[in-house]
Design goal:
- One of its GO terms (biological process) is DNA damage response.
- This protein is 77% helix and 0% strand.
């Protein structure tokens, strides 16, 4: 069984993803604040933005957790098969 190495993202990638997140959230918030509409419409759009961001984080975490569970289950199954194969002696006909 080969050891599973954790995925490592580069520092540049992490910085880029956080910068893109902060910029998109800031620019959308700026756009909502500067809309020529009543405050209740701005509030409604702001709540929609907050809900969208929160549900996106939840979806990403759930997808990641599901993927990691499947990988772990596959590793456990692989280890069981390897153990069975290592214990099997084809010349022993008992």
């Amino acid at each position: 069984m080969q050891p599973m190495s954790p995925q490592k993202d580069s520092t540049a990638w992490v910085i880029q993803t956080w910068a893109a997140f902060v910029m998109s959230l800031s620019m959308t918030t700026f756009g909502i604040v500067n809309l020529p509409v009543d405050n209740w419409v701005k509030g409604f759009m702001g709540m929609g933005l907050a809900f969208s961001v929160g549900s996106t984080f939840t979806l990403a975490k759930t997808t990641r957790d599901l993927h990691e569970t499947r990988r772990l289950t596959a590793r456990i199954d692989e280890a069981k098969v390897e153990k069975l194969l290592s214990q099997h002696d084809p010349l022993n006909l008992k």
